[in-house]
Amino acid sequence: MSMGKVILVGAGPGDLGLMTVRGLEVLRAADVVVYDRLANPALLGEVRKDARLIYAGKGPGGMKQAQINAALVEQAQAGHVVCRLKGGDPFLFGRGGEEASYLVAHGVPFEVVPGITSAIAVPAYAGIPVTDRRLASTVAMASGHPAEDGDGSTPRWRELNGADTLVVLMGIGALPEVTGELLAAGRDPEQPAAVIERGTTPRQRIIVGKLRTIAGDAEAAGVRPPAILVVGRVVGLRETLSWVERKPLWGLRVLVTRPAEQARPLSAALRDAGAEAIEFPCIETRPLPPDARAPTALQRAYEWMLFVSANGADAAAAALRAAGRDSRAFPAGRIGAVGAATAAAVEAVGLRVDFTPSRYTVAALAAELPGELAGKAVLLPGRAEVNPRLRDGLTGRGAEIVMWPVYETVIPRPTVPLADVVGCGVDVVTLTSPSAAGGFVELGGKEAAPDAVVACIGPPTAEAARQAGLEVAVVAEEHTADGLVAAMIKHAKGKKP
What is the mean pLDDT of residues 400-409? Predict the structure, then answer.
């Protein structure tokens, strides 16, 4: 068996957007991922389905450093490409140098993918530049936590005091001792200081004070790791340079109930608006086997073929491929899509969309479809059940509806209960289809998130949610992921004093 290799990858400080392009490439390609406690767990959604995951966080349920080292060597010697996923940067207080040395000693090839360190990124997200030519030309970084198996050495605080800005990582558990050492070493007790908890994430919290008071301020606020200490005059710039807290959905925890393969655009839009997106699919789509009626259905001529979801386009194309055919088998005639996202999915499978309605609803699709429909056949690839609004709109215009079932929607059986996923609380639940509303309720959503604001992508989803016993507070005017986020922002602004 040929030797594999280990790639030490910095996961950044917490914000998913701060993971490097190269780091994502390695994560997605790895056979084995050995990850620690500080790496954002959402990154594990990027790994291959057949990849092995090994939790190597320190503390309960984790590993000692010697065990981590041994696991890396064992997996590489078994021929695997191993992604060693570490919070921040592997070579800045991340034990990456120790792990690399161990790999070299055992003949294991390795690479390093640097990560954005929390020592710079976390202050930046708090509006604190660690250097500024008006106030600070030097910066020092130190660890406030001694190595568990090191020589017991501590930072040389007097020398570190020579830096204009001092950033201390992993020192919150010993904050009184750290600040005491700095004061004893002669640092100005009135110098501004800040403790930043869970920096770069929507749960970021910032405590600002003076060096002489910051330990007590942080204790009174109940600050817990991970958190960092920043000392220096640059802390005073936060008052004018804070920016991330000004995002419209900052600090909100939002549940995304879309199927896993469709959740990413909505999650990205939520994160861009400052929210923490928690993905928990309450429905999933499954392609049906090639339908026995499909060859007959596709031999007819249709006035229109209408797609009401991206799932329909993808599943129809998959059904054709399974039958040894391609997009040329779709019948002649014009093609309509309920909205821009569906139209993009249709065109991605090789079809040109001729029409989308002015409003992205099935009712508008049926009402605005150009031309005479009386006596004309309309093909609907998708689920076996036709949306009542679409059915009534088309038959009301005299059209003959022909269904082509290509996928079904089912409620998944998650390995982790919804109540556990939202155990820390969730502020908003997003629902993007009537079936998602039903799935959320069946999976215990009403009990797991009783106080959450319910935000729906459109009126049909809102109606289904209400029928399921949910109180709907937000309904998007534009029935897209961006429209849903815009509606949430409008609602959030309306609630602010």
Answer: 89
- Enter the tokens of residue 28: 């997605």
Q: What is the pLDDT of residues 305-351, one digit of tens each?
A: 999 988 888 888 888 787 777 777 777 689 999 988 889 999 998 88
Q: Average pLDDT, whole number, for the chain?
A: 90
**Is 354 part of the annotated catalytic residue set?**
no
What whole-number distance in Å separates Cα of residue 185 and Cα of residue 178? 11
Are 32 and 72 in the same domain?
A: yes
Q: Is 36 a catalytic residue?
A: yes
Domains in the chain, number: 4
Of 417, 427, 421, 431, give the one whose Cα is nearest residue 466.
431
Q: Look up the CATH number of the domain holding residue 341.
A: 3.40.50.10090
In the set 19, 63, 170, 488, the catalytic residue is 170
Q: Which helix (H) or strand (E) holds 5?
A: strand 5-10
Which candidate in 31, 36, 314, 427 is catalytic? 36
Joined together, the tokens standing for residue 39 give 């790496």
What are 287-299's pLDDT values in tens digits? 887 654 455 677 7
Strand order in the sheet with 165-169: 139-143, 165-169, 227-231, 192-197, 205-210
- Same domain, yes or no, for 137 and 233? yes
Whether residues 156 and 299 fall in one domain = no
| Structural domain that includes position 356 | 286-410
Helix (H), strand (E) at residue 438? helix 434-442
- Name, in order, each residue with C-beta under 8 angstroms of 337's C-beta and a sequence gap of 6 or more: 306, 307, 308, 313, 343, 346, 353, 355, 356
Q: Is the predicted pLDDT of residue 43 greater than 80, yes or no?
A: yes
Active site residue 31: no
- Which is the catalytic residue, given 5, 58, 376, 446? 58
- Full-model pTM: 0.81
